[in-house]
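Input record (one chain):
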Amino acid sequence: MAEAETKTETNAFDSAAFLKNLTGRPGVYRMLDHTGTVIYVGKAKNLKKRVSSYFRKTGLTAKTQVMVAQIAAIETTVTHTENEALILENNLIKELMPRYNILLRDDKSYPYLFISGDTFPRLSVHRGAKRKVGKYFGPYPSAGAVRESLNLLQKLFPVRQCEDSYYYNRSRPCLQYQIKRCTAPCVGLVSEEDYKKDVEHTILFLEGKNQQVMDDLSADMEAASQRLDFEQAAAIRDKVIALRRVQERQYVSSEQGEFDVLAAIVKDGMAVVEVCFIRGGRNLGSKSYFPKGSADSSPEELLAAFIPQYYLGKNVPSEILLSHQADDISLLQDVLQTESGHKVSLRQPKRGQGVRWMQMAKTNADISLAQRLSSRSNLLQRFEVLQDALELDELPKRIECFDISHTRGERTVASCVVFGLEGAIKADYRKFNIEGITGGDDYAAMNQALSRRFTRLQKGEGKRPDLLLIDGGKGQIKEAQEVLAELNLSDLPILGIAKGPERKPGEESLFLVGRAGEVTLSADSPALHLLQQVRDEAHRFAITGHRQRRAKARKTSTLEHIEGLGPKRRQKLLQQFGGLQEVQRAGVEDLSKVEGISKSLAQKIYDVFHGDK
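The corresponding structure, as predicted from the sequence alone:
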């Protein structure tokens, strides 16, 4: 239990007098403004040291300086341990919602799939306390993810999903039986043994232990083919394909994997935490969170604030993989273990399958953040700030950005991406395969791409941009000036964006044609965030185009040319997946589960269809 020991200053805050008598014990502090509203809640192992750090003369972030200037009083509550302080801090943050804390909107309980313990078990969605007898699978990130799984499982394994009140009052089979989604145990049309087999297959699948199910189906398909019962073989093949698709995994962990993956990204004035749910070695989906007040935080600080708000009071997996080493990670781990009653590991994956899961989580986080940044209201503000920063006469409603990508001069590709007030206008994106230049000459590549784009514009093709953004420095800008001058488009504003010496976001150099010196924008400027977003998208699109062009020149197109994949293995592969198209869709882990296909050979097969992307 915490010991209530409250200190309060009410008038103009005298930090020196307050700190003089402040205890060095662990506890929680609450900062209040002149209206008595709590603006920040924090925890400390040593209250005196932690609170003192806010009043030092140097080293404070801009956000902290603004917050400290509003302090009219500080209240503290002493606790026995730092663990107690963390729990109390979490409770106060959720209750008071202080404006300067990183805040996570509390969610409803997550949905689970539930198989009842009846003689003829029911498969259903479950929320809330797990009081019923049966097996629970999850959690799933959303009700939609559960419904999708239920729908697909019903096609694969006809286990009943009807309410018990409906089930026990049937006198004849329902429509689900007629469309082959149920075997009608309600009226005795299936034996308990046969029904039990479908239930066992369902459980094996949900636990990720489904290779035996796949082998059985493949054997049945082969047997049907041998009997010349091609209709039955085709039906089983379709079931194999459907089962493969629902268990497809781009990145795979062990069959017994039960953990969450947390990826934190802070970018362009916004922050996201992506939570991926891995159960039984299978990815059950992910969910994106955009905590308030986190734009100026580091990923480490973001995770440290997110983890207790997200997990305390909920079911906690035994392992949580983190994209960054969260602050106070040992404390967080101890508290989660105490609260959950089982061992909890918080760690950054360094190698193997955990790294592959983390890369997937980061990719999803990037996509979620990009979608959030593209919201119309947010973009409009950024465009308006950009207009003011560049002193443009009109709002730039259409920005085109060009970038160049190649590998040591090979297969050079230029990209053109387009952004408007509605976000990325992908229908207007263009790629230019650059030919006839010296390999690695980015200036010539930029000249060729711009010439082709704006020559078409002068012929009446496409729309004129309001701002031309060039990813590069003065050399690339000079090429743009020459091209536009030759095409009588010199009135089109040209802005160059070049990375700083250490290539860190916020340190870019901006050059606007016609203005002396650099354009200066602060690291937290919405205008700079917009330019970074457009530049990064152009860079991504250019790299994608270059890799596709390079892969097309190098890629082997048939299984026959893969070293180590002989006729028998090819036949087994096609049989297990039901065709070449499904082999192409498969991940490395699924390919390697086929008899005779090693991990290294599975990687070769995967690379044939996916290049080195």
